[in-house]
Amino acid sequence: MTDETAKQTKQTELSERLAVLKKNKAFIVGASILAFWIFSAIFGKLIARYDQDFMDYESINSAPSLKYWFGTDSNGRDVFSRVIVGSRIIMVISFLATLLGAFVGASLGLTAGYLKGKYDMILMRILEAISAIPVIIIALLAVAAIGQSSPIITILIIGFIFTPNVARTVRAAVLGESELEYVAAAKLRTEKTLHILFREVLPNVLPTLIVEFTVRLGYAIFAVATLSFLGAGLEAGSPDWGTQVADTWTLIFTNVWWPTLFPSLAIASVAVSINLISDALLEVFEL
Amino acid sequence: MSTINTPTLELRGLEVAYTVRGIDRQVLRGVSFSIAPGEAYGLVGESGCGKSTAAFAAMRYLPRNGKITAGEIFFEGKNIVDIAEEDVAQLRRSAISMVYQNPATALNPTIRIGKQIAEVFALSGASKSDAMAMAQDALTKVQISDPAKVMRRYAHQLSGGMAQRVVIAMALASNPRLLVMDEPTTGLDATVEAEVLDLVRDLRRDTGTAVLFISHNLGVIRNMCDRVGVLYAGALVEQGATADLFDNPSHPYTVGLLRCIPRGGLHKSAERLDTIPGTPPALGTHFDGCVFSARCALVEDKCRTVQPQMVNISDSHVARCFHSDKAIAIPHSIEKIEIKSTSKEHSAIVGESLLNVSHLSKVFTQDGHQVRVVNDVSLTLGVGETLGLVGESGSGKTTIAKLILGLVAPEDGGIITLDGKGLAKTLNRRDVQDVGAMQIVFQNPDQALNRRHSVTRIVSRAVERLRGFNVSDALDRAHELLLGMRVEATLHSARPVQLSGGLKQRVAIARAFAGAPQLVVCDEPTSALDVSVQAAILNLLVDLQKQDGTSFIFISHDLGVVRYISDKIAVLYLGRVVEFGESNQVFQGPHHPYTEALLSSVPNIDGSSRKRIPLTGVVPNPSNPPTGCVLHPRCPRMTGSGVEHLCTSTEPALNEVEPGHFMRCHIPLDQLRKVQTQ
């Protein structure tokens, strides 16, 4: 060696950051809660103490006890089992909806930020118009127009609603990236625009996209629950958390609070855990 | 108040550590120095050696993850290491001020300049109207013309030099006894830098303020400071009176630093530059012995195990080295023998015309104004030659490079021919051969290399596209190219972020050479690098040129570097070529008055003083250039030339004033020669 060698320190940077992440309390709490719910979503039937649809007519609206940890609802179904099993539906729908929104939003944001000009202006005005309409109204209109509700429609609606936010975030990141000289360098080796977009620019905005994805995922949990609660999501009787709250909330006035409280807590815990994780990621990776 | 014997600032065995990702990393290792009242003390060293940390620590202004782990800081005899935050704040209000590198970010963009300066006076108890009056006085003191007008402006409406004057005015507002200046002129053009340095020198004489001056630029330090300290890896390795230290450097690191710099009119044809082998240690590395032992040519076993103490070289000069007597004669790290061209056929055609650019212009539309950033530029460059482009920022250097490369389309009428073949205006209309024939090395490799791609991929992809190689042949060629640039095979799979600045630039050079180019544009390729790395990169470029007969267009604000590497020089002002000729002709003169001013503004590292030819005023707005010769409002040689009427009315043509030497000036050459040799 005559002059420079690589900086050894930078090679260990990622592992050092991960080590810091592992010590981050917010991350530990968030990841533990989320891990529990992911486990429930996959192996829920094993944890559940009863079948989620089993009705115990002997004990309707019974308070939490050793037999029914979270009590039972007005149909005598075990609230604990329904919360556990219900995790799968809400988590899968939220995840797919966010994925859809992130995919479409990222594609639009990439092209808008790179091509700029008229295309960018028209596209962004349309996306702004969409995000100006209240979420609930879009959802209710969509359900009314289609005439039914199903998991697929919930995914499409939430994905559609998220698209403008993701597109705007990605576009902002791409605007900065496309000014950098590696893009000029790519042009100077005769690369096509698509290659520059997806092979050169996209990898560099990926961290931004991942953080946006986790933030959206947190919102998606709420959105799915809200849509179900309003009857615009899944069918009544489904064990998903939003529907459970919708089916049982009137019971609160008769002091039967448990069938509503536990699924609500479940919703809150997932949303909070995802937010804790995305906060920790933002902090540790200094995004 | 201090007595005459109490230093304004004294650091004793100061140690500072930064907590990075949970681990404490030592940044300063027992740094001790003192600054007497009215004295200017310079700290030099390469990036990451702890210069700024020492300054911040002295002001008790470390970032949140930084802490003083040992040592003492005395301000006017009082230890301020443990004093309360309020007392520190009081010191900063009344006794210590700081000027930062980037004036644009040091000023608040939302508050008018006048109000910002007045705030400092209001803080020390002046009434609102008094404070405004004092602010105006402060601006007058830093030689701002029409201060009343500047008071009403916002930061973004000021040029870099003006903004730095405003920052200095604010720093001086509290009548500080210590002024800390951290690279105060680094982002500024040479002519502006010279003005700001003159100002600081004058103010120091008038106010008697002690100054801690930090710079990586040894020429600036030599011209500004009474005493100098050299930092390496957080340790002070040498300290002395400026002339002593520069003329008789006694630590191998100082010797190496001084040798890396092309100076005294050195040219690539004469000798290669010396470099300092190895790289600075990573942050927080532990040393048993001398911090420099890993890179030192004089190293012995003792150096690795025992920490050397400061040795007296003279009354005012100390060095931390066991071999301080041998340092000045340290062996050169680079063979001084000139590398001969490996292929005969290349050398045979060196000088034959390669690039011809004629009547190149570019007009940008900015806020509805037509801005002519490049105006009727014509240049020629031969095979195997280097054309240096010099001029202040905004003179159109980079735009010309982009026009030639086809990244920006020139206006109609501009013609670019390479090897006799006319080129299309824009990149996407040029064929692969033409694109590969002209490549660029950018200033900032962090932005020029895609940080998500491996080193190999960055180079091999360029080989694939430009040479039409298949993937595996391209990979082979990429490895070959990288090894040729002395990037070791173990680093080929690394990402750019894992490489040091110099290695990144080597990768960028490998990429530029992927298409076997005839011409490579180097746009400030070494200005982001430390001097020792700069020397290695310049050596590499010169070697490549000798091997392959590649031509370079070399853009740099560092005239020493441009002079070293260039065969021809074009001096640009306001998008026009004002002087063009052989490197020797341009540098030895007679010069165009603008070139003369530019050359005289470079701080001289050899300590010889020379008369500075100042350019008055600021660079005019290119959307509304002056009538006649565009330089005439600032020209140092117009008055008394006898041709003033021509200068103010007619734009001079680019005339051949002697064979191969072109100048855009009405003043006859002999007259210029006469005034310039006086």
**CATH overall fold name of the domain at 344-575 in chain B:** Rossmann fold
CATH class of the domain at 344-575 in chain B: Alpha Beta
- In which range does the helix fraction of chain A lie? over 70%
What percentage of residues of chain B falls in helices of 4 or more residues? 25-40%
Number of strands of chain B: 24
CATH architecture of chain A: Orthogonal Bundle
Number of strands of chain A: 0
Number of alpha- plus pi-helical segments of chain B = 25
CATH architecture group name of the domain at 344-575 in chain B: 3-Layer(aba) Sandwich
Low-confidence stretches of chain B: 337-348
Q: What is the rounded Rg of chain B?
A: 26 Å
CATH topological fold name of chain A: MetI-like fold
User: Kindly, what is the distance between the CA atoms of the first and last residues of chain B, rounded to a whole number of angstroms?
Assistant: 48 Å
CATH hierarchy class name of chain A: Mainly Alpha
How many discrete domains of chain A?
Answer: 1
Characterize the biggest β-sheet of chain A: none
How far is the N terminus from the C terminus of chain A?
A: 36 Å
What is the radius of gyration of chain A computed over CA atoms, rounded to a whole number of angstroms? Answer: 23 Å
Question: Outline of this structure?
Answer:
The complex is a heterodimer of chains A (287) and B (678). Chain A contains eleven helices and no strands.
Describe the overall structure.
- The complex is a heterodimer of chains A (287) and B (678).
- Chain A is an all-alpha fold and 287 residues long.
- Chain A has one domain: MetI-like (MetI-like fold, Orthogonal Bundle), CATH 1.10.3720.
- Chain A contains eleven helices and no strands.
- Chain A has helices at residues 8-11, 13-23, 25-47, 79-115, 117-132, 135-146, 151-177, 181-187, 193-229, 241-248, 258-284.
- Chain A starts with 7 loop residues before the first helix and ends with a helix.
- In chain B, the strands form four sheets. Chain B has an eight-stranded mixed beta sheet with strand order 6-7-8-3-9-10-12-11, with helices on both faces.
- In chain B, a hairpin with a 2-residue loop joins strand 16 (415-418) and strand 17.
- Chain A binds chain B through residues 1-11, 13, 16-17, 19-20, 23, 180-182, 184-191, 200, 203-204, 206, and chain B through 21-23, 275-279, 282-283, 333, 405, 407, 427, 432, 435-436, 439-440, 442, 444, 447-453, 461-462, 465-466, 486, 488, 491, 494, 497-500, 502-503, 511, 514-515, 532-533, 536.
